[in-house]
Design a protein that fits this description.
Helix content: 40-55%
Radius of gyration: 31 Å
Bound molecules: adenosine-5'-triphosphate
Domain UvrD-like helicase ATP-binding: 188-541
Keywords: ATP-binding, Helicase, Hydrolase, Nucleotide-binding
Number of strands: 21
Number of helices: 30
Binding site for ATP: 209-216
Strand order of the largest sheet: 3-4-2-1-5-6
Shape: globular
InterPro entries: DNA_helicase_UvrD/REP (IPR000212), P-loop_NTPase (IPR027417), UvrD-like_ATP-bd (IPR014016)
Largest sheet: 6 strands, mixed
Distance between the termini: 69 Å
Strand content: 15-25%
Protein name: AAA family ATPase
Length: 693
């Protein structure tokens, strides 16, 4: 009975949604074909324009790709009343499909609305308590690109809000095995995360969050949101994501492109300050002093130290006449420039103009009528140039820092009252290098050079900077990041309990002050999406020792997770670790073997002997290569389905002090998504042995 079949088909809601999906995909293909067919010869007036346009078109084509495993829409909102079309990317009506990008049909009517559009916001925020004019929220489930399920929430149903729990589709998304790089979370951003994602561009936001609460995910989605809401402004000023190291950046690098954003720069702090080649290291004591904010004042003084008051007048000869500007008058100019806190380089450019102006005044007084060109000519006069060179010499930032770290007398003068003698000794080079090129600069030295460079010439500011794993930055590093967003805003993400540098952040207020964003709002995320409940409870035993006062994360994961702590004899440890890896490989998803850096070579040999192939952090895991051998110092920010943790005592001992060691251990213990096996031959740190009471 075909008639009846048609009726059933039309009435089957899943089938209707599939029809909309098919139509949306066809519309996306048509949009892409339109862009591909663009003939730029008609519009591009010249070659340069053509190049720029071509690149933009290529990017647009890439952004319009229909990715088989990223569903075109993941949600639907049915409003009670039609919202204004200005909020809905031009769509009218009451029903909207929410997806990663905007898709419209041949008539320009939107079939899928961008998740960042105002009309999409209730998808993330609406609740029964505050339905935001939404009647129904529908979430879609996909299997291998096929729309196979949906889940409805009736927001008008006045059931008590307290019972609102994450639905089955959110659970499934969170529990999905991890393989490959980090994924986007657009389909399941949670209300407290969405508040951070959509916070206004004007303010800086600082997020404290326990491991796995989604800080990195939130930061990346925030950039995508800001690029949508302020596209032109940010295209002009630029956006940047700062992460702790290369392997971390490689792990997160595909999230923004998956959201259609291809133009966000990513860098480590070291990349930002790469004025010199870093080939040296500091003692922890020296690094700590070099990273201290007092160094900013030492450098400010050092840059200014070359400025000397004139002893002689400046005499400018023009034609038959000589114009004389007395020393006291030039001194006044110098004092005035010093008092106005302008950049050394800018002041150096202003001084000859001031001297020239003084000459011009004298010319006018004697009846001449000089114009601006005369002033410029006087400013370039050899006598003026020579005077400026002596009074306000140019500063080469690297040479200045080289001198500061080599010349005890010079350092003592600049650091008087700031660094004590012992501190000065700590940062002085034992054997001063001969040149900037031959010096064995450390990472902290490069930050000092960056500070000096900014004192000479203002560092350009970007529109928005996301700083992840911020807790590890020194005050001087915060300043380096801060000067890259002086006229823009920032998103600062971190966890005080995971600070593993000797200078790790103690309070966010201090960090924000160093960044130059003291008025930023600090918020906290506490819902954990990564670590199973038992595992986070175990790791949290370390909190009183490493970050008293911080709250333990909750876990939204329903599965308790596999968790085991096993003691083995010292001679059997390597074998046991290999066996645990082999067992973990029996599960789906990625495996991380985390060990103290010093243990890595030995474990590598043990894996080789056992014939288990493994990757290094930053190498992409895949179905065929799922095991990564991770030195504990590179584990931060990463996650694996199953983690095998080797010898906690060695992880702790790998750090200069116990607290840092325990923090490193806390990071290692919180990388697991589905299961954690801890293997040890030495006793566990006492903090972990604590029995729940
Ligand atoms: N709303 C969400 N829906 C689904 N998954 C989420 C959500 N929020 C976070 N996740 C997932 O939880 C995991 C942890 O997120 P993320 O790495 O951003 O946490 P983090 O706070 O930066 O952790 P860490 O402090 O350990 O670096 C990731 O796999 C992320 O995709």
């Amino acid at each position: 009975m075909p008639a009846q079949q048609v009726t059933t088909h039309a009435d089957d809601p899943l089938e209707r949604e599939r029809t909309h999906l098919a139509a949306s995909r066809a519309a996306l293909r048509a949009m892409r074909a339109d862009v591909e067919a663009l003939d730029i010869k008609d519009v591009a007036a010249n070659w340069v324009n053509a190049q720029v346009l071509e690149r933009q078109i290529e990017e647009r084509i890439a952004a319009l790709a229909d990715l088989a495993h990223t569903p075109l829409f993941f949600g639907r909102l049915d409003y009670l009343h039609a919202p204004g079309a200005d909020l809905a990317e031009g769509a009218g009506g009451e029903q909207f499909y929410i997806g990663r990008r905007h898709v419209h049909d041949a008539d320009g009517y939107p079939m899928v609305i961008d998740w960042r559009a105002p009309v999409s916001q209730p998808f993330y925020r609406a609740s029964k308590k505050e339905p935001m004019d939404v009647r129904l929220r529908r979430r879609f489930g996909y299997t291998g690109g096929e729309l196979t399920a949906y889940e409805d929430e009736d927001l008008t149903d006045a059931e008590p809000a307290a019972g609102e729990r994450p639905g089955a589709l959110l659970q499934a998304e969170i529990e999905r095995p991890r393989v490959g790089p980090m994924r986007d979370i657009v389909a399941t951003i949670q209300p407290e995360q969405d508040e951070i994602v959509r916070a206004g561009i004007a303010g800086t936001v600082c997020v404290q969050g326990a491991p796995g609460t989604g800080k990195t995910a939130v930061g990346l989605h925030r950039v995508a949101y800001l690029l949508y809401a302020h596209r032109e402004r940010l295209a002009r000023t630029g956006t940047l994501v700062v992460g702790p190291n290369r392997s971390f950046l490689r792990y997160i690098e595909q999230v923004l492109p998956a959201l259609g954003e291809l133009n966000v720069a990513q860098a480590t702090v070291d990349d930002l300050v790469a004025h010199v080649e870093v080939r040296g290291t500091d003692t922890p004591a020296a690094a700590r002093i070099k990273g201290d904010a007092r160094m900013a004042e030492v450098l400010r003084r050092a840059v200014r130290s070359g400025v000397t008051m004139p002893a002689e007048p400046v005499v400018v000869v023009r034609g038959a006449r000589r114009w004389r500007v007395p020393a006291y008058e030039i001194e006044e100019m110098v004092r005035e420039l010093l008092a106005r806190d302008i950049r050394h380089g800018a002041a150096r450019e202003a001084l000859p103009q001031r001297i020239a102006h003084a000459v011009l005044v004298r010319m006018e007084e004697s009846g001449e009528a000089p114009d601006d060109r005369v002033q410029d000519a006087v400013a370039r006069n050899p006598a003026v140039k020579a005077a400026v060179k002596a009074i306000w010499p140019a500063v080469d930032p690297a040479k200045l820092v080289l001198r500061l770290l080599s010349d005890a007398q010079f350092l003592a003068e600049q650091a008087a009252g700031l660094l004590d003698e012992d501190e000065q000794r700590q940062i002085l080079w034992d054997r001063p290098p001969r040149s900037v090129r031959s010096a064995k600069w450390s990472a902290a030295d490069a930050v000092l050079i960056d500070e000096a460079a900014d004192l000479v010439t203002r560092t350009p500011s970007l529109g928005h900077v996301v700083l992840d794993e911020a807790q590890d930055l020194s005050p001087m590093q915060y300043r380096a990041v801060g000067r890259r967003c002086t006229t823009g805003s920032a998103t600062i993400l971190g966890d005080l309990a995971q600070g593993t540098t000797p200078w790790a952040t103690r309070t966010w207020q201090e960090a924000l002050a160093h960044l130059g964003k003291a008025d930023a709002v600090v918020t906290e995320l506490t819902q954990g999406f990564r670590v199973p409940r038992q595992v986070i409870a175990y790791a949290s035993r370390l909190l009183p020792a490493i970050a008293p006062g911080l709250k333990e994360a909750t876990s939204v994961r329903e599965s308790p997770g596999d968790f085991a702590v096993r003691a083995v004899g010292a001679e059997a440890l390597d074998e046991a670790v290999v066996a645990a890896c082999r067992q973990a490989l029996g599960h789906e998803g990625s495996i991380g073997l985390i060990a103290a850096d010093a243990r890595v070579p030995e474990l590598a040999r043990a894996l080789d002997r056992a014939g288990l192939a493994y990757l290094a952090p930053g190498e992409e895991t895949s179905e065929g290569a799922r095991l990564t051998l991770v030195p504990a110092t590179l584990a931060k920010g990463l996650e694996y389905d199953y983690v095998v943790l080797d010898e906690p005592a060695a992880v702790v001992a790998g750090e200069p002090d116990e607290r840092t060691g325990l923090r490193r251990l806390y990071v290692a213990l919180t990388r697991a998504v589905s299961g954690l096996t801890v293997l040890h031959a030495q006793p566990l740190p006492a903090e972990l042995e604590r029995v729940e009471g």
